[in-house]
Amino acid sequence: MEGAEQDRFGSILHADLDAFYASVEQRDDPTLRGRPVIVGGGVVLSGSYEARARGVRTAMGGRQALRLCPDAVVVPPRFDAYVAASKAVFEIFRDTTPLVRGLSIDEAFLDVSGLRRLRGPALPIARELRRRVQDETGLPISVGLARTPYLAKVASTLAKPDGLLVVPVDGELQFLHALPVERLWGVGDITAAKLHAAHLRTVADVARLTPGELSAVVGRAAGHHLHALANGHDSRRVEPGPSRRSIGAQHALGRASFADADLALLALCDKVGRRMRRAGRTAATVTIRLRFGDFRRSTSSRTLPRPTESTSVISDVARALLESRRADIEREGITLVGVALSGLDDHGAQLVLPLDDEADPVLDQTLDRVAARFGNAAVRRGSHLGRGWEPRSPVQ
């Protein structure tokens, strides 16, 4: 049954953050929520959906934007905040599937076809992805689910803002052919004008022509490309970029106490330790990421004397970093905790002398085998019992 549902809906997700820069500003400044916001002065870099409803568009001149929306709040861009938010979202993407292809700072393709046995059909995975991004980063995201990257991207665009749109495999052409030609990849103003001049307004109009007929309108290369897309053919595959430079995980807590954050951090250390060893790597630097009750973020890191593959070493360092922020956590509360391992090396752990203060790797290896065979919850820390903490299953 699950396989049939996967086949019906496809397994390619296109995830796209909504009005990204403006959404980060509204998230970080509660007084901006529900108000028209313009990021950038001379040129609009991003506009909130409240501003877009008044005609404000990206790349529009600032004066024109203010004429359309005189009550807009104009804020200068904070690129460090946007990069940090993007990194947090992409960590969730890569925690969902190893097959992630970033298109820009705020969008990516994800292929979840290999998760059928582990996580089930693609539709619940898409719903969970949206929930995690909202809970863990405080940002709205739209997701399209389809058989091909092109259809998934069109679906996510039509799902905005803050929505999920699924294109069933047996309904692809019905969905596609009703769209205007501007929705075809590669159709800009010039190509659209050529298509309109030939009385081609919808994707269905384009699909009815032969490649030769279409090439006479827009040129040979564009003609064959558009004919393929208009008939539902897209040979692109979601292939990840270069090998990752870090391994991380994070968890949203609500407004939690220091003790709750400590418990969550321990479970996250268990998780990233398993993933690191499964990849046959060691880590030289441990970083923790915190988000306080007002969405303010904090990052702390420590580089180890030598690379390690030991969960106990990782957790000791991570907890020490957390302890250094205890006063802030107790004053502000904490809504998210994360841990990341960097300085990754794929040459295995360095051999150490018996007297060195390093945990016995046999324990980690044994726990890894138990988790791989029976699931992460098969062996749990005593401190987690009765606390409602359920570690997520590994997906990569």
TrEMBL record:
<keyword id="KW-0479">Metal-binding</keyword>
<dbReference type="InterPro" id="IPR053848">
    <property type="entry name" value="IMS_HHH_1"/>
</dbReference>
<dbReference type="InterPro" id="IPR043502">
    <property type="entry name" value="DNA/RNA_pol_sf"/>
</dbReference>
<keyword id="KW-0239">DNA-directed DNA polymerase</keyword>
<keyword id="KW-0238">DNA-binding</keyword>
<comment type="subunit">
    <text>Monomer.</text>
</comment>
<dbReference type="GO" id="GO:0009432">
    <property type="term" value="P:SOS response"/>
</dbReference>
<dbReference type="GO" id="GO:0003887">
    <property type="term" value="F:DNA-directed DNA polymerase activity"/>
</dbReference>
<dbReference type="GO" id="GO:0003684">
    <property type="term" value="F:damaged DNA binding"/>
</dbReference>
<dbReference type="InterPro" id="IPR022880">
    <property type="entry name" value="DNApol_IV"/>
</dbReference>
<dbReference type="InterPro" id="IPR017961">
    <property type="entry name" value="DNA_pol_Y-fam_little_finger"/>
</dbReference>
<dbReference type="Pfam" id="PF11799">
    <property type="entry name" value="IMS_C"/>
</dbReference>
<keyword id="KW-0460">Magnesium</keyword>
<comment type="function">
    <text>Poorly processive, error-prone DNA polymerase involved in untargeted mutagenesis. Copies undamaged DNA at stalled replication forks, which arise in vivo from mismatched or misaligned primer ends. These misaligned primers can be extended by PolIV. Exhibits no 3'-5' exonuclease (proofreading) activity. May be involved in translesional synthesis, in conjunction with the beta clamp from PolIII.</text>
</comment>
<dbReference type="InterPro" id="IPR001126">
    <property type="entry name" value="UmuC"/>
</dbReference>
<keyword id="KW-0515">Mutator protein</keyword>
<comment type="similarity">
    <text>Belongs to the DNA polymerase type-Y family.</text>
</comment>
<dbReference type="GO" id="GO:0006281">
    <property type="term" value="P:DNA repair"/>
</dbReference>
<feature type="active site">
    <location>
        <position position="107"/>
    </location>
</feature>
<keyword id="KW-0227">DNA damage</keyword>
<dbReference type="GO" id="GO:0000287">
    <property type="term" value="F:magnesium ion binding"/>
</dbReference>
<dbReference type="Pfam" id="PF21999">
    <property type="entry name" value="IMS_HHH_1"/>
</dbReference>
<feature type="binding site">
    <location>
        <position position="106"/>
    </location>
    <ligand>
        <name>Mg(2+)</name>
    </ligand>
</feature>
<dbReference type="InterPro" id="IPR036775">
    <property type="entry name" value="DNA_pol_Y-fam_lit_finger_sf"/>
</dbReference>
<dbReference type="GO" id="GO:0005829">
    <property type="term" value="C:cytosol"/>
</dbReference>
<feature type="binding site">
    <location>
        <position position="16"/>
    </location>
    <ligand>
        <name>Mg(2+)</name>
    </ligand>
</feature>
<keyword id="KW-0808">Transferase</keyword>
<keyword id="KW-0963">Cytoplasm</keyword>
<keyword id="KW-0235">DNA replication</keyword>
<dbReference type="InterPro" id="IPR043128">
    <property type="entry name" value="Rev_trsase/Diguanyl_cyclase"/>
</dbReference>
<dbReference type="GO" id="GO:0006261">
    <property type="term" value="P:DNA-templated DNA replication"/>
</dbReference>
<protein>
    <recommendedName>
        <fullName>DNA polymerase IV</fullName>
        <ecNumber>2.7.7.7</ecNumber>
    </recommendedName>
</protein>
<feature type="site" description="Substrate discrimination">
    <location>
        <position position="21"/>
    </location>
</feature>
<dbReference type="GO" id="GO:0042276">
    <property type="term" value="P:error-prone translesion synthesis"/>
</dbReference>
<dbReference type="InterPro" id="IPR050116">
    <property type="entry name" value="DNA_polymerase-Y"/>
</dbReference>
<keyword id="KW-0234">DNA repair</keyword>
<feature type="domain" description="UmuC">
    <location>
        <begin position="12"/>
        <end position="188"/>
    </location>
</feature>
<dbReference type="Pfam" id="PF00817">
    <property type="entry name" value="IMS"/>
</dbReference>
<keyword id="KW-0548">Nucleotidyltransferase</keyword>
